[in-house]
Amino acid sequence: MPDLTKTYDVLVAGGGNAALCAAITARQAGASVLLLEHAPRAFRGGNSRHTRNLRAMHSQPTDVLTEAYEEDEYWDDLRRVTGGITDESLARMTIRASSGVFGWMRDCGVRFQPSLTGTLNLSRTNAFFLGGGKALVNAYYLTAESLGVAIAYDSEVLAIELQDGAARSVNITYRGYPYTVQARCVIASSGGFQANLDWMRHYWGDAVDNFVIRGTPYNRGKVLKNLLDQGVAMVGDPTQFHAVALDARAPQFDGGITTRLDSVPFSVVVNQHGERFYDEGEDVWPKRYAIWGRLIAQQPGQIAYSLFDAKALPLFMPSVYPAVKADSIGALAEKLGLAPTKVQETIAKYNAATGTGKFDNSQLDGCTTVGLDPPKTNWARAIDTGPFYGYPLRPGITFTYLGVRVNERAQVLMENGHPAGNLYASGEIMAGNILGRGYLAGFGMTIGTVFGRIAGQEAARHARN
Amino acid sequence: MHATEATTTLRREVEICNACRYCEGFCAVFPALELKREFGEADLSYLANLCHNCRGCYYACQYAPPHHWGINLPRSFAEVRAESYQDYAWPPSLAKLFQRNGTVVALALATGIALVLLLTMAIQAPGMIFAKRAVAPGEFYDVIPLWAMQIVAITTFGFSLVALGMSVRNFWLDAGSERKLTIGGVLYALHDIATLRNLGGGGHGCNDNSERFSMTRRRLHHAMAYGFLLCFAATCVGFIYHTFFGWAAPYEFFSAPVLLGTVGGIALIIGTVGLFAMKLVDDPMPAARKLLGGDVAMLVLLAAAAKTGLLLLLLRATSLMPIVLALHLGVILTLFVTLPYSKMVHGLYRGAALLRNALERDQAPLGSGGG
């Protein structure tokens, strides 16, 4: 059991990638460190345990990254996905730092692998962890343990008491018992609030009952809310989150990667009234899958259905639940709980509008519908070859954008613009400074790693002085 | 391969793996399962026998217990693997020996030793057994006549080879590749077998009993397997010496059979004792509890073969030689007899699975292209 009575140099709230990078770096810099992970050991690591890779700048091929991915291209990608809701100097600093993390990560036991399949063709920009994010988290915990970081699982941070812009003490529960812990510096790395459905309900009403949370149920946003309530500056739109299209049968939490569906571009998607509502073939799936969560969230009942035929089945990766299967469109609609005549009509209208161009699933093939609203502008093939298949879809929330404002030293900023004396942040709790909107695969892990290391370094230095 | 509860469990798990694919850097199993969308019993048998039980996927799995999906591939693969040994066993009437295999091998060992001792007693006059000895050619055969050794060895080992051959044929007909054998494929498979590349976790080692990676299991298995091969080579050289050159055992210490046997025996002891010690500190979660008996029995049997062999070398000039010789031959007899009905079969099926994997390794994973 960790000693909760002593005063640590650095207390880290959280137990995912950003928390671990901060804790290890601070310990390596000579600080005594206490890491408080809300989850039990088996579920440690926050959303990092569901991740797979890290986006890294590089100017030449490495053993785990192909070609080159320079600062300007990286920044362009970020600016495009965020629509400018970012902080260029923090973003560029993060991008530049991403090229230098590999040596340290390897020293911490993180292993990489060449990217193979199902990875949205990211081998140029993203380095893949061997075994995925849980293996990375395992490596960091082993390193933290061997360095002498005190680790407490089942430990929820309830409040960081701020006085005159400095953290004085930290209220926690450890295995269900309340404690007040003293530390010279505090690093908040406790993630967003997407698993706090009551908080989400505040903005989304009862629609949240139809949301699936892709990751950990332990990201409740308690520290985030507590800090914002005490005059810490806020970034990011609290109503916004990143969402993808998931199988509606997914568990409410922790379904991770396997419940996502890649069938949309090769299918027709209807809402619960059996009507289409968006161009399924707008762009290649890696560039579009992130908008479909929101599209479905805006449909009645927050549900939609991806319908396709036997021709399309082999074109995308399998997901965890088998597709609903029937010999006719009518029977399929019935199995999915849709009005058969309406769905038959929608498919018939769609089929009648197809027929141009040569289908090619490997690129934007220009196979478009004619005279259909909304159109399907690529991969529009008639759905006519039985058996027919369908997946029910729901919005799957990955993360929220709301966060605390930080500076380039990972110091948390107060509403008056001054940095809090001894309070730092890393990871999803501050990612909104840089990724204020949209999504860039593997960038959350980059922000967590870069800011985790900065926060650990700065906190250790501050504690020594 | 029959449908059982174990194959049903495994099918559910590999379907989840196929939707995740985070583990594909660990070993050959994951790229192989990505070639399929649906998994028949034969596919599951192939994958189960391809699994080297390195456990990398268990510790890396975001869906491992206590997650409600409870993915535990090393255990599920081990259970299906064990059932496949029964399914492919020849003759089928002896398949039952794989149930409670630890007990079976232990009883066989006791019977084997007792039998050889009793037969030695029966053949020899009582005074002969404890008489003073010198290391002289033909000395062993004074205790147990050459003809007796040869008849027993050739019949038991011969039967076991036939049974093993039929078993692996059953495997190949059920779960082998439909592709034609190629030299490249065979060489690739042999390389995988010789290096145990798939026990390497993509070059980082196994998860022996925790999240920590290590090469210990792989190295100990190498010591055991190559030790075993050296001992077998020693036996073969001895057979050639005697049959073609008329040189009778025992041989001098600095002779090929004795050196091969000594080095092999020491390696075999290091490997088996080391692997046994690892079982003692094993993480019980990814292990299949009901297979422990058969696994341990095989380690004990191999260790006993090596230890009695080395003991024979040490004591061959003493009056204890006949007893130790009988002991050693009893162990070897057990090894020969239980060969097709023990953990030893894993090598053949694993080799066959690696061959299929080598022949099919150029295929593209399903669902990887486009959109």
Description:
- The complex is a heterodimer of chains A (465) and B (371).
- Chain A has 465 residues and is an alpha/beta fold.
- Chain A contains 12 helices and 20 strands.
- In chain A, helix 1 runs parallel beside helix 5 and helix 9 crosses helix 10.
- Chain A starts with 7 loop residues before the first strand and ends with a helix.
- Chain B contains 15 helices and no strands.
Structure described in brief:
Chain A is of the alpha/beta class and 465 residues long. Chain A has helices spanning 17-28, 71-82, 88-98, 102-107, 133-147, 197-204, 222-229, 285-297, 329-335, 340-353, 428-431, 443-464; strands spanning 8-13, 33-36, 53-55, 112-113, 126-129, 150-152, 155-163, 166-174, 177-181, 183-188, 212-213, 234-235, 241-247, 268-271, 304-309, 324-326, 388-400, 403-404, 411-413, 419-425.
Blueprint (SSEs and pairs):
The complex is a heterodimer of chains A (465) and B (371).
Chain A: E1 8-13, H1 17-28, E2 33-36, E3 53-55, H2 71-82, H3 88-98, H4 102-107, E4 112-113, E5 126-129, H5 133-147, E6 150-152, E7 155-163, E8 166-174, E9 177-181, E10 183-188, H6 197-204, E11 212-213, H7 222-229, E12 234-235, E13 241-247, E14 268-271, H8 285-297, E15 304-309, E16 324-326, H9 329-335, H10 340-353, E17 388-400, E18 403-404, E19 411-413, E20 419-425, H11 428-431, H12 443-464
Parallel strand pairs in A: 1-2, 1-10, 2-6, 10-20, 11-17
Antiparallel strand pairs in A: 3-5, 4-5, 7-8, 8-9, 12-18, 13-17, 14-15, 15-17, 16-17, 19-20
Chain B: H1 5-20, H2 29-33, H3 41-50, H4 56-60, H5 73-88, H6 101-123, H7 126-129, H8 139-143, H9 146-175, H10 183-195, H11 216-245, H12 256-280, H13 292-315, H14 321-338, H15 345-359
Helix pairs in contact in B: 1-5, 3-5, 3-15, 6-13, 6-14, 9-14, 9-15, 10-15, 11-12, 12-13, 13-14
